Amino acid sequence: MKAPKLKSIFRNVRTEPKKFKFKSRHLPDVRDDWEERKRRIEYGLPSSFSFSKRRKSAKKVRRRALLRTMLIGALFVYLAYQLILWAETTEWGKYLEFIRENG
Predict the structure, then answer these.
(1) Which of 15, 27, 41, 87 has most Cβ atoms within 10 angstroms of its Cβ?
(2) Dist CA 12 CA 10 (whole Å)
(3) Phi, then psi, of 3 in degrees rounded to 5
(4) Do the beta carbons of residue 15 and residue 5 sit within 8 Å?
(5) Which of 48, 27, 28, 24 is nearest to 36 (CA)?
(6) pLDDT value at residue 9
(7) CB atoms near residue 16 (< 10 Å)
């Protein structure tokens, strides 16, 4: 008679040892889409995948990301400039002058 399995307070405790399954790349089980692609290449049929479309869309994405980053950077620089102007016109300006003179 086996002992009953009780819930453990430790979540990572295993009741069975780890198992290893080796999947060889050289098995005879070939994917169906692989056979279809191979047949298209042999007969010279056009593939449904196009590298040029992918490159163009990637360029657009990169360009938009760069533009967005530049706009955010420009916004932060502008906000920092406005913050410096505000600090100089308020009582913070006195503290900044004191630090500049004695710093």
Answers:
(1) 87
(2) 6
(3) -75, 145
(4) yes
(5) 48
(6) 67
(7) 5
25 secondary structure, DSSP code: T
**Is 93 within 8 Å of 87 (Cβ atoms)?**
yes
Q: Would you state the structure tokens that stand for residue 3, as one six-digit string? A: 């002992």
Q: pLDDT tens digits for 10-58?
A: 666 666 777 877 777 766 666 677 777 787 777 776 656 566 666 778 8
Mean per-residue pLDDT for 55-71? 89
d(CA 58, CA 61): 5
Contact call for residues 72 and 78 (beta carbons, < 8 A): no
Tokens 């692609």 locate to: 37
| DSSP annotation of 29 | -
Q: Where are the alpha helices (DSSP H) in the chain?
A: 32-43, 51-89, 92-102
Record the tokens describing residue 97, joined without a space. Answer: 């002058």
CB 29 within 8 A of CB 19: no
Token couple for 62:
């990169």
